[in-house]
Amino acid sequence: MTEAGASSGGFAVVLAAAGSGTRFESGENSGRKQFMELGGRPLITYSLDAFASISEVRVVCVVAPAEELEAVGELVRSWSKGCPRAAGEDLDLSLVPGGQSRQESVRLGVEAIGETCEWILVHDAARPLIEPGDVRRLMVAVSEHGAAALGYPATDSVKREEAGMSEQGLDRSRTWSVQTPQGATAENFREAYSLAVEGEEYTDELALLEAAGIPARLVEGSRENIKVTLPGDEELARFFLARRDGAGGDD
Ligand code: CTP
Ligand code: MG
After folding, report:
1. What is the SS3 string spanning 10-36?
2. Could you tell me where the beta strands, DSSP code E, fall in 147-247?
3. Residue 148: how many other CB atoms lie within 10 Å
4. CA–CA distance, 52 with 181 (Å, rounded to integer)
């Protein structure tokens, strides 16, 4: 296996945490899901731990809701005290205010990172189950292919819908569910943003890169890397985390 990022530049991570979690809100759930308590600590800290454990990751930029910048700054500072790399300034941590859409938040994070690293990974803070081993395999693919994302071959069929009717099926043997992290060279991101159409919604980084003609490698990761999106998803996340702890270790 190639040592990802060993030759030069290193990796920067944009941790997208500026969403308002509207689909997650319910009678019981209030506050933003990415900062909710999960297994005794804020949900976002699982992703921070995963990236901080990888030495090739040199920069982590947390994109936070503009109106909660101070509180999130406090949360990140408090987390960093327990993280030797962050406390020892071996890991460069920054915080920037996000935008109205995920796309806008990620763009602001990528802009803030600038030229500091050769490669950039983007991760949803709402995915606490991300495993360092999967991130490492993704990093190798990003450094070899210029762009890559974690995901897994789809197990459900995916249909296009029109007025409630199934219009067209996609060939399931060629369909993947795509997760984050998704990453590319800083240069590919720069090019993709320069070619992005104003007002166009790109659902994720792969869509943005594809629109610029930049192909991305799909890397099979864990199905447990779920995004806490709907009420109840946090129960599943708790279950996976408890099972992982029970199996001895979190790597
Ligand atoms: N995100 C972001 N900035 C936004 C919207 C989303 O940084 N303006 C982040 C979220 O915090 C989350 C990730 O992008 O970590 C994935 O987005 P999603 O699951 O859609 O979260 P929300 O947008 O917060 O939820 P919803 O769409 O239900 O409102
Ligand atoms: Mg959203």
Report:
1. CEEEEEECCCCCCCCCCCCCCCCHHHC
2. 147-153, 159-162, 165-169, 176-185, 217-220
3. 27
4. 14
User: For residues 234 and 242, is the Cβ–Cβ distance under 8 A?
Assistant: no
Give the mutation target among 100, 102, 202 for probing the ligand 1 site: most ligand atoms within 8 A of CB.
102
pLDDT computed for residue 79 by the predictor: 97
- Residue whose CA is closest, atom 26 of ligand 1? 21
Residue 87 Cα to ligand 2 midpoint, Å, equals: 32
Q: In this structure, are residues 19 and 10 in contact, taking their beta carbons and an 8 Å threshold? A: no
Residue bearing the CA closest to ligand 1, atom 19: 229
Q: Count other C-beta atoms under 10 Å from residue 248's C-beta.
A: 6
Residue 239 CA to ligand 2 center (angstroms) comes to 24
> Which run of H or E residues covers position 164?
none
pTM: 0.94
Using 70 as the pLDDT threshold, list the residues of the chain that sit under it: 1-8, 27, 29, 248-251
Point out the ligand nearest to the CA of residue 61: 1
